[in-house]
């Protein structure tokens, strides 16, 4: 068998051709239409779900894994009832549903022949994008996302002629990634070598070599202690504060989409437990949008009740998955968010889409198709809103009024996403710094009320509102309440912001 597909093109159905063309694009982050390419990738994945639904048989096989996944999806939808930000939770639910439809569709056919060709092809395209857009890391956004995508993708390239893709990927990273980030290239090469050792039976070597290597690196002074220490401590800070969030609502969690809303209340809590511990919150408007640990974030948002469904799902798929890929994703999930990034989440889905044993059969094609079409429509609206947000970011420095207009259009198009709501307050503050009387007080108050729905304890929103109240000489009582809230939850960021205001 040759490495490239030996399909009989005249007999290949149009849907199969479309899937083969779309699948590599769905795995990539090309960043052409919008500032944040995640929206494009979710839209492509929703389109793949629609095409895949059209090709499904009338009755679908529903193994236990699909039932557990459906249970988690229903529980996530139920958690919107107690989520403080059901809009963002609904946004997250759309992504979860896309993943669920793709996973269910993947149980109906043997995807292995396609996967062994599509993923290496996607990795090659990713390498090409890195050469074409090195300053933007090929459109992936940053070097970490590049490394995660290629590290997971390379696990599909460990046998046959696809192994040459691994060499191409590593060489590409060495030449395209900036010199101060080449430690990630070393990590990628080491990770690939360890996976090779593991697959060839040298499991003790795969376990002990990294420990020995780390000792050599540290003792020889080859590592950058400040860089490593700051990265480790930043994640430790987020993990400790997320654990405190979990302790407050351990059983049912805070609800879908709640992390960014609730975390500001806890973002400096670790400093009370460990007074000498530093914080990553060095700027007045810095915020954390994920726990950088998928396990903790599931507990924070869905509690132990949600983990029952996750545990049942993982147990049900244990016998028939790509263990190498799943192991890499599981490790990355300890310090990142590969399941929230569409590219790496899609790779994780491909690793678990093998048939999962005994199953029931239900006539579900039409409902799945209807859901897929709905998801495509919703992601289209989300993509349009993000295009307005891109216009907002571009115009913010030169045309604050035009930026606010684009920001409002983004909110009106897709009022559920958190980004347009938070940005609306920051855009307004930028506008009012230079032209303090261009907005009526009622308009400014309405914008603040919209922004507050994304996080009333968010320091960026509160400080922007405080700056407006001070400059406009309005509502001293409200300004005092904001100061008290900031002093209670984020005193360090308050001191930084007040220092900037004095300058």
The amount of beta strand, in percent, is under 5%
Distance between the termini: 69 Å
Strand count, sense and barrel status of the largest sheet are: 2 strands, antiparallel
Biggest β-sheet: strands ordered side by side in the sheet: 1-2
Shape descriptor: globular
- Mean of residue pLDDT? 77
Global structural class:
mainly alpha
Compact description:
The termini are far apart.
Please characterize this protein's 3D structure:
The chain is an all-alpha fold. 67% of the residues lie in helices and 2% in strands. It is built from 22 helices and two strands. Helix 1 runs antiparallel to helix 2 (38-54). It is globular.
Give me the secondary-structure topology.
Blueprint: H1 14-27, H2 38-54, E1 60-63, H3 64-78, H4 86-106, H5 112-132, H6 143-154, H7 163-176, H8 183-199, H9 203-219, H10 225-248, H11 259-262, H12 270-273, H13 294-316, H14 323-332, H15 342-351, E2 359-362, H16 365-395, H17 400-413, H18 418-434, H19 441-452, H20 459-472, H21 476-489, H22 491-502
Antiparallel strand pairs: 1-2
Keywords for this entry:
22 helices; single chain; 503 residues; two-stranded antiparallel ribbon; disordered N terminus; mainly alpha
